[in-house]
Amino acid sequence: MSNVLRNNMGRLFRWNETRIHELNYLFWECTTRCNLHCRHCGSDCTAPGSSPDMPLDDFLRAFDTIPRSAIGPRFTVVLTGGEPLLRPDIEEVGRAIRQRGAGWSMVSNGWFYDEAMHRHLMAAGMGALTISLDGLEPEHDWMRGREGCYQRTLNAIAIAARERRLNFDVVTCVNQRTLPQLQQLHDLLASLGVRQWRIFTIIPIGRAKEDPELHLTNAQFVELMEFIKAKREKPESAMNVTFSCEGYLGRYEWQVRQNPFFCHAGINIASVLIDGTICACPNIDREVFGQGNIYQDNLWEVWNNRFETFRDRSWARRGMCKDCRKFRDCLGNGMHNWHGDCQEVINCHYRKTLTP
């Protein structure tokens, strides 16, 4: 199949998904407390971690506005934070979501994930889990801001990778320190039985904004694309290596991921944030793109009647995106690349790929 035909099919798929606007993933920022101090904090890089956990009953009241008929087999509530395992009621949370006919998953740093925790969470119906590994031992602990994190994370990965009932993946945020380690990380994860490895780069916001070691040069970004491309063309193990959905990749679009770039934020994805804000994916600028609040608004009505900013991206034709010939494939990159006054996208992955 030619890339032209693939691109046309991708646009048609995106148009249809946007038209249907079916909610499949609901992120719940159930806590902002965390036991680590990551250099690239991906929850809310400016909010204090002392915010109280949202009570489960508050979230369930919002969730219960969603009709049961809209909760299909793909509907998943994703628990995020902070570190969700700091909630003492995490099993109760999982069971309550399953009782409502939805699946649930979790994003964790792995520190508290041992055999006992694994058994409890599986018994509570957890269907998917994501754990981050951001380098070999010195680099991972440096990134996560706590000594000993690497060994605990490896232990958690090994436990989860053995569980065949679990849809499990490892994510890695690549930076200048870890780029040379990718082959070693690949071999390590494959040896642990990991079947899905998603690779990210770091958006220059919050804590990461003024940290140059976290950001790849354009040439290094191309090096990363070539690494993933090689692993997909000639797999060395049963592990699927893929680049994340963070941006449009030009010539690498069909070489480093299974499907073409499509930012699902606000199309299939919504979130309930720690203060009740209703938004799309939690990494988006909540002050700019918040759509309401569960303490004043009906979550389901907000999903159906707002989110137009996400469904119609014509507003993103500004700055470097204004005259870009790839706009209809990119639509201004992932929504988490728009922050503050939104006069200019802060990160263009396509331009990075133009580096020879």
Question: Please, could you describe this protein's structure?
Answer:
By secondary structure, this protein is α/β, with parallel strands linked by helices. The protein has 13 helices and 10 strands. It has helices at residues 3-20, 56-63, 90-99, 115-123, 137-144, 149-161, 182-191, 218-233, 286-289, 299-305, 308-311, 327-330, 349-353, and strands at 25-29, 76-80, 103-108, 126-132, 167-173, 196-200, 240-243, 269-272, 277-279, 292-293.
Cα(first) to Cα(last) distance is: 26 Å
Overall 3D shape: globular
Q: Indicate the proportion of strand residues.
A: 5-15%
What gyration radius follows from the Cα positions, in whole Å? 20 Å
- The percent range for helix content is 25-40%
Structural class: alpha/beta
- Poorly predicted regions are none
Assembly state of the chains shown:
single chain
Which series of helices and strands comes N to C?
HEHEHEHEHHEHEHEEEHEHHHH
How many DSSP E strands? 10
* Strand line-up in the sheet with most strands: 7-6-5-4-3-2-1-8-9-10
- How many H/I helices? 13
Mean pLDDT: 94
Largest sheet: 10 strands, mixed
Short account of what is shown:
The protein is of the alpha/beta class and 356 residues long.
Descriptive tags:
356 residues, alpha/beta, ten-stranded mixed beta sheet, 10 strands, 13% strand
Question: Secondary-structure blueprint of this entry?
Answer:
Elements: H1 3-20, E1 25-29, H2 56-63, E2 76-80, H3 90-99, E3 103-108, H4 115-123, E4 126-132, H5 137-144, H6 149-161, E5 167-173, H7 182-191, E6 196-200, H8 218-233, E7 240-243, E8 269-272, E9 277-279, H9 286-289, E10 292-293, H10 299-305, H11 308-311, H12 327-330, H13 349-353
Parallel strand pairs: 1-2, 1-8, 2-3, 3-4, 4-5, 5-6, 6-7
Antiparallel strand pairs: 8-9, 9-10
